[in-house]
Amino acid sequence: MKLLLCALFILMCFSVHCIPHKQIALTLDDSPRAAGGYLDGPTRAKMLLSALKEHHVHQVVFFSVSEHLHGEGLARLKAYGDAGHLIANHTHDHPDFNTVTLAQYIESFEQADRALASFSTMTKLFRFPYLREGNSLEKRDVMRKVLADHGYRNGYVTVNTYDWYIENQFQNAIKAGHIVDLTRMSRFYVDMMMQSIEAYDALAVNVLGHSPKHTLLLHEMDIIALFIGDLITALKQKGWQIISPLDAYQNEIATFVSDEILPFNPGRIGEIARTQGVTKGLWPQALQESYLEQQFQLRVLHAQSPSN
């Protein structure tokens, strides 16, 4: 009997302590993003900070666009920094690297670097707008050198999402006079995010042999303020641990550098997958606008009851 109890105790210890959680950091682009739709800016910030605190997420990173640092936008970003969240560089005016000159892009990066330097939680991570890292060899390599010269690291994502498209669906429905059931909206949003997370984690396990420390692409907008708590709850229920972005960017894949020129970048896991000849699944179904539109119409606007 004693041997049986000891075996059961060892098994319980192993299950609790030795099986690692899957880990993911929350990263929010475009802050302080334009407000004035369903929520105003101060309400968005208050709801978002409250939800993060309530769900014990102590640090996320806001990749910030410095042209919005005035008035309410400046106060909003300051509130995020004062709460201990990281502020990082997302350029001054969110240019598309595929359509502007290298000189214009560097200037936008440097202008944001100067503007964001006063934030106490500013960290030298840079996220390329649209995840586009250069559509020519010169653009790609020169910008990599510029980042290194300024002491920056690439704020890559491992989980790409189209949450911005879901936000547009939500705001457009409100403007059109639809009464959007927020419970249905939350279920739809969380499901689409989890589909992307699980698809990219499965791809990572396929190409890396394990689940890495993930970085989730989100945007600072109304649906994140409304539903981030529900997303965190869903992640934890699925065995995910929310970690600091600083921890996530200490991952072994942080040093990976693609030799390809990728005008359209699926994210770090997709980059690695391409080096192994994988070309399918780099943009999962939940990143397809037609699928999101169909699901939004079916599950949010046309649902007949909260259970649908």
From TrEMBL:
Q: Which GO terms describe its cellular component?
A: membrane
Signal peptide location: 1-18
The record, for SUPFAM superfamilies, names: Glycoside hydrolase/deacetylase
Please give one Gene Ontology molecular function term for this protein.
hydrolase activity, acting on carbon-nitrogen (but not peptide) bonds
Annotated Pfam families: Polysacc_deac_1 (PF01522)
Domain named NodB homology is located at: 22-243
Please provide the record's keywords in A-Z order: Hydrolase, Metal-binding, Signal
Which GO terms are recorded in the biological process aspect for this UniProt protein? carbohydrate metabolic process
Q: Which domain of life is it from?
A: Bacteria
Under the heading PANTHER family, the entry gives: CHITIN DEACETYLASE 1-RELATED, GLYCOSYL TRANSFERASE-RELATED
Put simply, this protein is called Polysaccharide deacetylase
